[in-house]
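User: Hey, my collaborator sent me this sequence without any context and asked if I could get a structure. I don't really work with proteins. Can you help?
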Amino acid sequence: MPSTSKKAAPPAAAQLASGALAAEVFTPDYWQDACKHLVKKDRVMKRLIPQFGNACLQTRGDAFTTLARSIVGQQISVKSAQALWTRLTALPSSMTPANVLKLKVDDMRAAGLSARKVEYLVDLALNFEAGTVHVKAWEDMPDEDIIAELIAIRGIGRWTAEMFLIFHLMRPNVLPLDDVGLIKGISDNYFSGDPVSRSDAREVAAAWAPYCSVATWYIWRSLDPLPVAV
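Assistant: No problem. I've predicted the 3D structure and written it out in structure-token form, which is a compact way to encode the shape of the chain:
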């Protein structure tokens, strides 16, 4: 498996939209090797990757925030998810399990969260507070074992678990076939907009391995040039 160790990004990359300095930002050290592989193996990647310069996947390394953000973003567009997250994070002093548990349901609903997402977010915070998620062990666990642990938490399905693998653990070879954006991006870039099946997507992604996460990131960028930050 390619290395998933991390290196610090420039300090400016660690600033929030508000201008406040965030936790240290990390990027995967396999990114350049992945890009070279994808450019060599895939005609679409050869076209897409140069369009985005040095931009790449980044994480601030906070497991709770990453999972919370994935829950907030379920079933809505990237733009809507960002707007909702901005309103939600204005409520607590910081996005921690303890602070989420102190929030009033009415305030979270007023920020735009559905009743179901409020339940999911609270349950996530409870699991973290109780220590029933094994954060320290995740780094050394196989992808599927992590997914199995995460989907045991209420409101976290396979899609959310896969987003966690990509955006928090920065695993290099995740192919989130339940992601609407990935399927649309494959349709637009490989099939001239025609409908795409999961089988079609797997066939396309065969050339991406062992860097499906990286290729997926570039497919997302082809739909929305602004990288998702977590």
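In plain terms: The first strand starts at residue 6 and ends at 8. You can pass these tokens on to your collaborator as they are.
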